[in-house]
Amino acid sequence: MTLEVHGLGISGLVRDVSFGIARGERVGLIGESGSGKSLTALSIMGLLPEELAASGSVKLDGRELLGAPEKELSRLRGNDLSMVFQEPMTALNPAMRVGAQVAEPMRIHRDGRNHRAAAESLLDSVGLPGTFRAYPHQLSGGQRQRVVLAIALANDPKLLICDEPTTALDVTVQAQILELILDGIRERESALLFITHDLAVVASVCERVLVMLDGEIVEAGTTREVLTAPKHEYTKKLLAASDLEASR
Ligand SMILES: Nc1ncnc2c1ncn2[C@@H]1O[C@H](COP(=O)(O)OP(=O)(O)OP(=O)(O)O)[C@@H](O)[C@H]1O
């Protein structure tokens, strides 16, 4: 297992959450707004707001992350662990050229590489050739999210977490970003934790899915099982309210 979460609790807001993600596996986390999806992700990254406390266990390749010193966590973030958030502009530095931002995680975590060439080839791989010297404001929302993805993939993470990565984007570019995420993790055999409220996206991206309600996981299974034969009442309601149901 790349990621093992056991009995995770977060200040009463998340309770007894357990799941694992194997190398190269794609797992979706769904549930309504406020159910605790983002807090679960942030606790894995060691980025919970200071007023919240996590208990239980979160292991990456056997190494305990909960309660690990900040120095150790900052060595993992942008390296073994990376995250793509909903809003690309807030994840980017507006005053820094795109190429330098893509090169940064490599400069911080890896030495002895031609970081500029590596950043240029990463930008190529997300469909943004020739943008090394651009600033974020010169790019569209979809292009910015491609930059964010290039940064997240720069050091070949063991685990990539995506929290609603396409929600802020035009429908036409959403599919392209999803494809790039899938290509990126396939090439690297990264594990993926994919948070979304969009069941159609889960169906196209994830092999397994976890359903969260009021801070707990109420259902888990293969995407096919959960989306075609949901057991929990809440999952049934989610499905009934989705386009997926309408299109069946
Ligand atoms: N810093 C905080 N202090 C207290 N409560 C918080 C804090 N951050 C989040 N919460 C609460 O924790 C609960 C879970 O929040 P979380 O952001 O994880 O939900 P979510 O499932 O990701 O929702 P969304 O889809 O809207 O992002 C919510 O009720 C939220 O109000």
UniProtKB/TrEMBL annotation:
InterPro entries: AAA+_ATPase (IPR003593), ABC_Ni/Peptide_Import (IPR050388), ABC_transporter-like_ATP-bd (IPR003439), ABC_transporter-like_CS (IPR017871), P-loop_NTPase (IPR027417). Coiled coil: none annotated. SUPFAM superfamilies: P-loop containing nucleoside triphosphate hydrolases. Residues 3-239 form the ABC transporter domain. It is found in: Cell membrane. One of its GO terms (molecular function) is ATP binding. Keywords: ATP-binding, Cell membrane, Membrane, Nucleotide-binding, Transport. It is a peripheral membrane protein. Pfam families: ABC_tran. The keyword DNA-binding does not apply. Its main location: membrane. Belongs to the ABC transporter superfamily. This is ABC transporter ATP-binding protein. It comes from Amycolatopsis oliviviridis. The lineage of its organism: Bacteria, Bacillati, Actinomycetota, Actinomycetes, Pseudonocardiales.
